[in-house]
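Holo model, magnesium ion. Inputs:
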Amino acid sequence: MSGSAIFVACSTLPEGDGDEHAVPEALADLGFKTRWAAWDDTTVDFGAADIVVLRATWDYAERHDEFLSWTESVPSLSNSAEVVRWNTDKSYLAELGDAGVAVVPTTLIAPDDKAPSWPKGEFVLKPAIGAGSRGAGRFTAGDAAAAHLSGLQADGNTVLLQPYQSSVDSDGEIALVYFGGVYSHAFSKAAMLGRELDESGLYVTEKLAPVQPAAGFRALAEDALDATAALLGILRAELLYARVDLVAGPDGRPLLLELELVEPSLGFRQTEPAAAWRFASAVRQQLA
Ligand SMILES: Nc1ncnc2c1ncn2[C@@H]1O[C@H](COP(=O)(O)OP(=O)(O)O)[C@@H](O)[C@H]1O
Ligand SMILES: [Mg+2]
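Output:
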């Protein structure tokens, strides 16, 4: 087998942040030629590639409709346009919660809803459609929270309200990475809120480290993927890549903070070279 792959990024960072350096090499070993392209580069024929892999499209949040139309125009997109539509709106957390997955308690506030009564203690307000921690803030009840909420709403956002999970400050988030529905590796991510945006302006720079997730974390990630596949009516194996971001809740048990099926950093630099080989293998499986 041989073929061609396009890895998709954005015009500001047309080859992503460098994390997947080893993946095109791993794909070349299996007979695939890879090139990078920005999703909005109209000179690129995305239909000509055997597989088009979303990797670093970090500017889609402000151009969500345009981005979704583009995903629908690409014949062999991974993950699929349907998955992208569902996963780019964090309202999916409520669906997964209803399906029995342990998610961080999430209240959705529509653009024309009035401010809720604020929870006791610290909480997070963030846009339902957002990436790279942009628009996310940590608050206690008061004017700053009200101003942040109304600012996001004025821009047309549905807003997520969640209790701040303080384990993020001590243990960070645990990101579990899956290729073709199968576990590959994990890494931890230090707390993001209050840190600076990268010079690209697209994301808050992440502080990552390798980690061996505890059994309860691995089990919850499996539950989240099974529930997602059931909700979308697909097989887990159809998900070329998935990153499940978990935090320890107040009682120490894991909770789902985010399920990334669009443009997660996959932490190849935090793990062994075989992770790139597993990704390449999963790409080939999508085409088999
Ligand atoms: N409920 C929360 N408790 C603690 N930290 C949070 C919470 N929600 C978000 N954060 C912090 O904000 C970051 C960005 O939020 P996230 O939901 O992952 O959105 P995205 O990564 O798509 O911007 C997280 O990586 C985490 O550090
Ligand atoms: Mg995140």
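The chain is about 30% helix and 25% strand. The longest helix spans residues 215-232.
Archived with the compound record.
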